[in-house]
Amino acid sequence: MQNLDYGVIGNSKSAALIDQNGSLEWACMPEFDAPSIFGKLLDREKGGSFDILVDDSYQVSQKYMKSTNILVTTFSSGSDAFEVIDFMPRYKLNDYTYNTPPEIIRFFRYISGKPVFRIKYDPRLQYARGETKSVSAKGFIKSYTHEPTYDSLYLYSDLCNDVILNSEPVEMTEDHYFLVSYNQKLVKVNHSWIELEMEKTKVYWLDWVHRTRQFSQYQDEIERSALVLKLLTYQKTGAIIAAVTTSLPEKIGEERNWDYRFSWIRDSSMIIKTLIRLNHYNVAKRYMNFILDLVTYKDDLIQIMYGIRGEKRLTETTLDHLSGYEGSKPIRIGNDAYHQKQNDIYGVLLDVIHQHLKINSKTIDEKENFWTVTRSILKSVRVNWDKPDKSIWEIRSQSKHFTFSKVLSWVAFDRGVKIAELLGQTYYADWWAEIRDTIKENILKNGWNEEMQAFTQSYGSPYMDASNLLMERYGFIEATDPRYVSTVKVTKEKLLKNDLMYRYRNEDDLGIPEVSFSICTFWLITSLYKIGEHKEARRLFENVLKNSNHLGLFSEDMDFESKRLLGNFPQGYSHLALIESAIMLSGVDEEI
């Protein structure tokens, strides 16, 4: 059985996953959404990997270098020991430019004795759709394919090319290095250069964490989750991806497999709100510029998701030649959900725009741009708020009047009112306030189920939905309101199982969900704390922290019985909610 016991490294351009034994099993180059160069994660035989092989006498342990995204895997057998330091270079070149090359550095640091290892270097370019050949050249190993199109990769090392290609034993008496690069290097690659890249990258991450807000409790968990969120940001445009993987299944052997290497408006906006709480305002500014670049004209309709460069068409195809994660197919590239109608995204986006306008100083030109975006969004919400949609959960075959979508339509107008007030536009503030109040009356009348004594998933529905726990967090209802208190308690009763939460338990287009959606457990924890159940909230939080992998990382889903991590990984949605719960349990609850 595979488990998501991986560490993630990255540099805000691309990312890679390395398992507990130091095997590099997932990497896409040159950018997040590019074809994989190592894809063993999705096919143990065909996918390709970069393995470190030692005999059974070695003990292997793994951790992050403190306060960084640099991964350290230690191999020891008696007095024989070495460690592998994995990272993707990232550091400032000047005030405005970052070095984020499409490359992975694996630095083998000698510790003691005479440890022996072998390398299995087996890249499979272009999702392993054709044959990849690796050949020795002067100064590097070149791997290339012509199928379906030409692509190439370069490996630099201080070891002899034949030793690597033939997987010959290496007895360590000194340090060694490997540089996997999408580009042929123009600089001289040697030990001093590799170590300098490592030190520059280390300093960058230490500085970034130093600027992160400190809390009295759970600081290590907050810090690690923040570092994950930063890895998911795309340097060029400010876009934020949901996860670094595609097609990791919600349940083994089933087809709930999606490509998450795209920027969802909802996820990204929530991540930005969290990073602002942690004092990382530059990330927010870059994301807001990404939004402004998307909405170029007043009649542009905002999609629920985009490519990392702002692509609007994310056509979904499948890779049928790969067996999938533990046989789970299909393997999807692209995401057909991009054309769905989800009314909640507007509220989430206007919430973060309001936050951005409050905190960061703006030129008059920037303010006018955001004002135009705000009016364009609310024009769309005014027309669509009372129509059915696909909901936050992207239920592909069902359109309904989902309660949470209505709540976020209320949020859209509520934040629109606040934005108008900030910018001195009293006419719009008064107009939008009337629409806001109309939406609220509609929700209180139709979203509340008297029999269930709770706000339910959709109008007239008897089913609970974890997303309604966010009603209080967005300011729609007070935590002390009996209707909200009752909704939290009924949601817990109906959706909590073995201290983990379902999103919902009713049937969707793929059947009845069978696994926990990680973010929902954190939503419940925060909601319980808000209604005064502090002891239970802390108990659940402590329990769920035990379910992370060995490095404190979470995926999208979790098995109720085994607590096995499932779904795309690492999941930004899960880590932002972890941060929110940890901050709450630290006794901090301010409105941003």
Shape: globular
In round numbers, the mean pLDDT is 94
Find the structural class using helix and strand composition.
Answer: alpha+beta
Proportion of residues in helical segments: 25-40%
Question: What fraction of residues sit in β-strands?
Answer: 15-25%
Question: Which blocks of ≥5 consecutive residues have pLDDT under 50?
Answer: none
Strand neighbour order, sheet with most strands? 6-7-8-11-17-15-14-13
Q: How many individual helices?
A: 14
> What value does the Rg take, in angstroms?
24 Å
The rounded distance between the terminal residues' Cα atoms is: 43 Å
The main pleated sheet reads as: 8 strands, antiparallel
Q: Could you give the count of β-strands?
A: 28
Structure summarized in a few sentences:
This protein has 592 residues and is of the alpha+beta class.
Element layout with pairings:
Layout: E1 6-10, E2 15-19, E3 24-28, E4 36-38, E5 49-53, E6 59-64, E7 71-77, E8 80-87, E9 91-92, E10 98-99, E11 103-112, E12 116-122, H1 125-128, E13 133-137, E14 140-145, E15 151-157, H2 161-165, E16 170-171, E17 176-181, H3 191-210, H4 219-231, E18 263-264, H5 265-277, H6 281-294, E19 305-306, E20 317-318, E21 332-333, H7 344-359, H8 364-384, H9 403-422, H10 426-446, E22 448-449, E23 454-455, H11 482-495, E24 496-497, E25 500-501, E26 516-517, H12 518-530, H13 534-545, E27 557-558, E28 565-566, H14 572-585
Antiparallel strand pairs: 1-2, 2-3, 3-4, 5-12, 6-7, 7-8, 8-11, 9-10, 11-17, 12-16, 13-14, 14-15, 15-17, 18-19, 20-21, 22-23, 24-25, 26-27, 27-28
